[in-house]
Please model this.
Amino acid sequence: MAHPALQTTLALVYPPRCLTCGDRVDSDFGLCGTCWRDVAFIGSNACDGCGAPILDGEDIAQGEALRCDDCLTIARPWRKGRAALIYKETGRKMILALKHGDRQEVVHPTSLWMANAVRDILEPRTLIAPVPLHWTRLLKRRFNQSAALANAMAQRLDVPCCPDLLQRFKRTRSLDGMTRDARFRHLQDAIAPHPKRRHRMAGRPVLLVDDVMTTGATLAASTQACYDAGASDVCVVALARVVKDA
Ligand SMILES: O=C(O)c1cc(=O)[nH]c(=O)n1[C@@H]1O[C@H](COP(=O)(O)O)[C@@H](O)[C@H]1O
Model:
């Protein structure tokens, strides 16, 4: 850690700034009051399958667990899913800054929010892994944002992480603007276990990490790859869940 005098000088020259709007804040990796108020955290009244908040009139219970309309319509291959935020306002800006602006400091607070979201579904011996990017996308972006989130979350939870557990070997174009069916078609056979890593998940629970969940097609293809390699159980977490009319 830097000497206190050096820290003070650095803070004077480079005062901490809000991660989203750049206003002055009290400490590093923080948000200003206005941006903080606009973070759409998901509370406990959430779907057990994808983490979406349960809206009024939608709370259809299946046994003990709540499932949103989407999860009642689309069969989810994973056991449980969580999301920390709704994909809007400050959360959306943070994800776009991380993904397209190389603002890796966003990982610091968001990995804590994700770690808190999954504490109730973590099984003993869980291995954390990100959804993979195709190598061409990785070259262009220089890092996998979901791997950065997975690594930081794993550290916070003191759980092992395998950043290259899965491979995306089909070059898929951006999912932006695609319909639900097109996304599922597009992701079919696109993701597989890394041949040198599949032993790590045999007989073991896996927690898959993505930055955003829209339809769940990417997480479903990744889940299937884990089961193909013998994972005993798969749960998923996204930093943000896209919610209709949010
Ligand atoms: O990388 C993408 O394809 C992508 C583009 C985009 O504009 N928005 C977006 O969410 N994605 C990715 O699409 C995935 C979520 O979409 P679904 O598979 O439909 O849930 C995540 O892996 C996102 O990183």
In short: DSSP finds nine helices and eight strands in the chain.
